Structure formats: C-alpha cells, structure tokens
Amino acid sequence: MSDAGVDRETVRTEEIAAEQRYLNVLYGKLDDLRAETIQRLKDTLRDSGGPPQARTERDISTRMYTDKLTQLSAVEHGMCFGRLDLDGGETFHVGRIGLFDEDDEYEPLLLDWRAPAARPFYLATAAARDGVQRRRHLKTSWRKVLDYEDEILDLDAAEQGSDLGLAGEATLLARLDARRTGQMQDIVSTIQAEQDRVIRAGMNGVLVVQGGPGTGKTAVALHRAAYLLYTFREQLSKRGVLVVGPNPTFLRYIGQVLPSLGETGVLLSTVGGLYPGITATGTESAQVAEIKGRLSMTDVLNAAVRDRQQVPRDHVEVTFDREPLHLHRKDATAARTRARRTRRPHNLARRVFREEMFRALTMQVADRLGRELLDRRDLDEINVELRADPEVARALDELWPELTPKLLLDELLSSPERLATATAKVLGDAERDALSRPAGTPWTPADVPLLDEIAELLGEDDAQERADRERAEREELAYAQGVLHIMEQDEEIADEERLRVSDVLDAELLAERFRTRSDLTAAERAAEDRTWTFGHVIVDEAQELSEMAWRVLMRRCPSRSMTLVGDVAQTGALGGTQSWDQVLSPYVQDRWKQVELTINYRTPAEIMDIATDVLAAMDTDLQPPRSVRTSGHQPWTRRVPADELTTTLPGLIGDELREVGDGRVAVLLPPALLSESGQQLAEALPDAVIGTRPDDLESPTVLLTVDQAKGLEFDSVLVVEPEAMAEASERGINDLYVALTRATQRLGIVHSGDLPAVLARSAENGGAVAG
Ligand SMILES: Nc1ncnc2c1ncn2[C@@H]1O[C@H](COP(=O)(O)OP(=O)(O)OP(=O)(O)O)[C@@H](O)[C@H]1O
What we know:
This protein is an alpha/beta fold. The protein folds into four domains: 2-165, no CATH class; 193-275 and 530-597, P-loop containing nucleotide triphosphate hydrolases (Rossmann fold, 3-Layer(aba) Sandwich), CATH 3.40.50; 296-458, no CATH class; 605-766, 3-Layer(aba) Sandwich (Rossmann fold). The protein contains 33 helices and 22 strands.
C-alpha cells in the first residue's frame, strides 16, 4: 500500500474509533432511558385502587410507558445512522429517535430523523448545501460501527455528482443490492430528496403521489405516517392514522416497518378489513368485484332498502283482543310516506312508521269499542296494549323490519326477486345474475364497501349495544383491578429489589386487560368502530380502489387530510383508477395536489428497459422511472412446449434459487395456470409454497398471481406465460408491467407460445439462455 493509502487507512480507523466512542455514549443513554421507563412502568403497575379518575390516569400511563419501551427496543439496531458537519464547525448525529443530554441543558445528542433540524441530511446537495459541509452515513451492526461513507458537499462534488442527485450513493446502493427477506425494511438512513419532500409535505388536503414501480411509494407512505405522527402528535394521537393496503399479504409485508419506526398510533388495514366484525375471506371473479365496485351500486342499495318498506296489497289481518284487526294499505302508505319524508335512515325512520301505524290501529280499535265513549287515557291504554301484542309486532315487522347491513345484503344477493327489483334500473340481466349467490356465502372484500354503504342507509339504533359495551368495560376493569390487587399483596412482587424485566413483561400482559378502555390507542378504538373518523388517511396502491371503496375511505376522513400513493399504469382491478382527477373530483373538486416520484430503487436498468416497452404500449403519457442501478444480469427468456411447462419449471426455478443464495424467488403465473398446476409445481420444489397466506412471502420460493404480487418484490422473478397474462383481462397489459417490475436482481420469462410483441426486446437482449 502507498503512503497515501496507509494514511487514508489510519484516518479511517481513527474516525471509526471516534464514532464508536460517540455511539457508546448514545447507547449508554438508551440503556438509562430503558431502565428509567421500566422503573416507571413498575411503579404504575404497583399502584392500584383509588377513584376511577386515578385508574384512568394509570391506564394511560401504563400504555405510555409500554409504548415507550417498545419504541426504545425497536431502535436498538441502527439507532444512529448519520452525521452532519455544518459550516460553523457544529456537528449533529441523526438517528431513529431523539436523545438529549439532561446534564447540558438538554442539548441534542441525537436528532430524530423527523425533526426539522435533521432535514438537511436528506436534502442538502453539493449545489444547494444549506450550510452542510459533510454528510456522513454510518454503517453499523447492532452497537458496533463498521464503516462510514462521507460526502463532501463542495463545488467539485456538484460538478461530478450523478444526474439522479442521489444522497449517500454508496450506502444507498449497498442497501438496494441486499437480499430480500420477505419483509419490507425502513429507509430512514437513505431517504432521497424527492421522497423527503413527500414525507414532510403539510397535512392539509389531498396529496396524490404518482410514481412508477419501485420509486419507493410504499416506503414513503409509511415514513410519512411516522413523520406526521411525530410532527402533529397532538392532533393525530386522538384520531389516529389509517394506512390502507391492497391485501393481507401486503399488510404483513409492510407490518414491521412502522414499529421499527417507533409508531403505534397507526391502523393498517385493507378496505375489506374496515368493517368491524367481518373478515372478508370469500373470493369472487374480477367481473363481479367490478360490478360491486361501481358507483351505481348506491342506487341498487337504496332501492334494496326501499324494497324493505312494504305496504299490503289491500290489508293484512291480525287478531287483537280476540277480534280481527286490519293493517290497511291506505294507513301503511301514509305511514310510510311520513317516515320516508323524515329522510332518516331506515332503522330510525322505522320508529316514525310504527308510531303512525299504532295511531291508526288505536283508532280502529277505538271505533270498534265506540270512540265517543273513550277518553285520552283509554286511547293511551289501547296504544300500549297494541305495542305489547306479538302478532301486531310481527305484522308491522313484515312491512318495515329492523335490518342489519349483513342481513340486508345477504338476503338481497341470495334472492333473485329482491335482486331483480333493486337492480331493475341499473343492471342488465347478465350482470344481475352474476351478483346472485346462495345465502350465507362468505363475505368478499368487494362486499365490505356495500355493507358500509348499507350501514349508512339503515342507520344504527345502537342504544342497547352501547349500554352493553359500557357494562362489559366496567366488568373488565374490575377484573384487572382485582388482579393488580393480588399482585400488590404478593410480597415478592412488592419487593422492589426483586422486580426484573421479566416481571414487567408479565405486567404488560396484565395491562392488556385494559384493552377496551381508556388506554386504547386511537388506532385500536378505530378498528372496533365503523363510524370512526381518522386524523389522516394514507392509501397505498390507491389506483386499485373501486368507486364504492373510495366512498368508504372518504367517510372515514371527513377532513380530507389524505395521502394517496399509486401508479395508474399498474391498475389491475377492472374497477380501478385510470385518472386521479376522475376519482377525486366528486369529493374535493380540483383541490388536490399531485407530486411525482421519478427514480426506481428496485428494478435494475436491464429489466426496466424491457418494462419500458410494455409501458409504452399502454395508452398513457406516463414516463418510466429511471433506475438507480444495473444488476449485471440480463433478463433471459425460455420457450417451453405447453405440455412440458410443469416439468421444466422446477429446474428453471432451482437454477434461480442457486443464483440468489438465501434470497427469494417468485414465480408469477396467470391465475388459471396457477390453479391448474400450482400444486404440482410446489410439490416438485423444496420449500416452495403457493402464496395464499401472508407469511408465505418468507419462503424461498413462492408461486403467485400478479394480483397477489402487487407492491411486493423478490430477488429473482420468473414470469410464466406473459401472453396469457396480458390477455387475461382488459388490464392484462398493466398486469404484465407489474409482473416484470417485481425483481431486484434477476428476471426470467418462460413462455410456450410466441412472446408478446411488446417483449421482443427481451429475446433480443438476453436471449434464450436458460437450460
Ligand atoms: N431511499 C431509499 N433508500 C433505500 N431503499 C429504498 C429507498 N426508496 C425505496 N427503496 C427501496 O426500493 C424498493 C421499492 O420501494 P417500494 O416498494 O416502496 O416502491 P413502490 O413505489 O411502492 O413500488 P410498486 O409501485 O412497484 O409497488 C423497496 O425495497 C424499498 O425499500
């Protein structure tokens, strides 16, 4: 090594040692904070009894300290990842949380990445330094500093910088090249400038983030949730943030990102998961889901509800007081008109209908007895008796029943007559018949927006339910208090010296007993309450949502403080979005803002070249995102006779598995082929699964449809029968684009017929290499 080389090495070793000393101080601080929080939690848990107010405060403290502990544990790995050296000689370290020095007037030891002062770490460039001289990315493993990357922001650097304007390029590329684990990782240490602007955008109004595949939309959406909770804590901790993803597998994939960012005030859900008490496990064709997603379903549901407000053809006869009593068409029609005129939802207007009917029936009975002989009190008595009569009640229920959303929708879809009446003005015969299904069929995700809509049309007479809930809460509270009391009596637990972390874990479990009460986070409460409104709503893969799904989300967010991320070139759902304007204008007219992400962090340039041809074949003026890197692997194609596909694929997949080592391989198949041959393929390979459950992504090989792979990524991807994929639906070409852009390293295309014309370049470039 030359002298200069030796010098550089010495400097590097010294710098690493200095950073290590600093990190030791930070971790010492972290340990102190943990110990202090554990102690406070112990004190809170030991303290029991007292008036309800004191208990409520204790519940809140328990939650607060438990949350804090979770947060302090989540930051252990990679707590400090960067440093900024400013013009005046000042330096700041940046990390996953903020730490302060109490002994030095609370000087910051570590800046939380979300704090305004940390912003130059993401935004400063050589051309716009913002007072920054040097940005340093630290490479650490747990508490150990391994290395660092420095960027000197001066004019020379400005001239030499890459045209993508990347910050911390080496650190970024190392992260992007890493093997995938089946779980998304946070990007706090390498957020890029265009992403930072989205993450830190103001909270008012609707922000649409349009970006091609791999531009970090999901990552940005999640970091934005964390940023908003940090910055607008007061506002958001009361109402919570809702993050909506396309399916449970995707939620599982992103589920770990937020806790590691230290946030718990967020509800992650699909639209299908937003109706409390329902797990939408049913499946149906894309065509049926599309029909259910149309805005015109509001007319169908309105008609379905009105259809449950009947009048007799002439009259209905019941026996009251051993005499016949008639519910006349004329009276019922008048009662129905009055009830409908109130414009109240069905279950609340029902009261008006019944009042009117009881009044008419009272008069009928009075006439029978001789009305002139009766006074007010007699009439009241008759009215009370009529109300108590089961036969009268049954007859009135026939005319205007109390309904639940589930009952109404199940009875609507399983009754050809009801369906025909409700859809008469809206659907043709074929579409109507497509909706028909047997009673008790499991709920599908597309049913959920319908149930939500019906819940609005029916209204809830929930007085009884609320009373029951409050009683149950009181009982649980009493139970938990009892347990705490027993703990307190226990000498061992009361002995401070003997309490250790394991005791606190038990206590955490105990605190779970308080779940349904005051210590619930906004997100937890929201999950149990259909009418909850959120402080902010973030929607990922927003292009997939139907018009009916948008109505659900808009109901959950009357303030319209929303971030919608998506890519209209990737829309797969038949009822999904082609234009953001079309989706949003009914709710906010033109009062929404769009920003674009342009850099692709996932798909290497070799693969993106091919995907770009597919994008160009779509009817869109969208630009493809620019890849930050090449992988050195040309995509390959392989033609295999159709009847040899299932026997040849295992060998091809095996080759890819060897290439990616401990990484992940995804095989993307057209839905028909997956259901036909998926089982046989999965059995022919070790550790291969058909991806139906959320944790299947952690398997080395997973077989999926494009729809299931949306939003996900893998080290290597095999796209099987691209022609069938492109022709499977109206949006097939979009699906093909999605399929091609899932790989972080390698792409193979396996086909039995001719390659679709849009993929001609893949055969030219990579050629038929495999096998
Ligand atoms: N600034 C960054 N630093 C490190 N990794 C990043 C950065 N931005 C994005 N990534 C990584 O790039 C990959 C793609 O990101 P993400 O899934 O968020 O993209 P997307 O736009 O949602 O893609 P798609 O539209 O295809 O679903 C992920 O592995 C993500 O961690």
